[in-house]
Amino acid sequence: MTLELRNVAKDYTVRGKVTRALDDVDLEVLRGEFVCVVGASGSGKSTLLSLVAGLSRPTEGEIVLDGVPVTGPGPDRGLVFQAGALYPWRSVEKNVAFGLELLSLDPVERAERVNWYLAETGLDGVRKSLPKQLSGGQKQRVAIARALACEPEVLLLDEPFGALDVQTKEDMQVLIRQVWADTGTTVLMVTHDVEEAVFLGGRVVVLASDPGRIAADVEVALPAERDLAVKREPRFLALRARIEDLVREQHRGHVSRVAAVE
């Protein structure tokens, strides 16, 4: 499986003015990879993910998954937002089962999948609870389990831990690395947190701004098996600093261009 963005550009029109949010983006994500996308605000991170999810269409270029053009949403892509968007009237297990109810699955297989992903994400003990009874981290676990239960080719994560406290965020980072290792699902994630991107990703793609475009594609030369202790190692700190510098340089360039126009 390969996810490819080929010369992708995206324009928005607001009050008659056309603004290019992304321009000439070429990106390839191979089966089983965990790729994180970072960049300053306005670099088009969420726009890029929206295009891959099929929630909007490119103005130019194409997005191809396994040789098939992406023209809209589909079960081959699972999407998790910062706000988990759970159904408040459905229990945890029924939220996880929601996507499966839309597929032609035997009830026994459906129940087995729900049970497996509840266990995998540490939710078995709260399976009968409603979302209002859950913590922020638990809600995101439900959103991740629901997206993965349909066994998509690609899991798309749009800053899913951005609203969580530091401890819960780190717990979720460890969880998503473990789930990725256990399932082999391809992951494309956007985040503003460079430390998070380096800890989670096998590659970190840095977007420039105005318009959004790929400024760097950095391989994360860290062990495949990682725990939080790796964040204190010199090689981790050096890589984080390198990528933070790249993001900062692109942001400064954006500010300079805006100032020159004004």
TrEMBL record:
Which superkingdom? Bacteria
Task: Name one molecular function that GO assigns to this entry.
Answer: ATP binding
Residue ranges constituting the ABC transporter domain according to the UniProt record: 3-234
Kindly give the InterPro entries that the UniProt entry links to this protein. AAA+_ATPase, ABC_transporter-like_ATP-bd, ABC_transporter-like_CS, ABC_transporter_ATP-bind, P-loop_NTPase
Q: Which CDD domains match?
A: ABC_NrtD_SsuB_transporters
Q: Which UniProt keywords apply?
A: ATP-binding, Nucleotide-binding, Transport
Pfam families, A to Z: ABC_tran (PF00005)
Name of protein:
ABC transporter ATP-binding protein
The species this protein belongs to is Amycolatopsis bullii
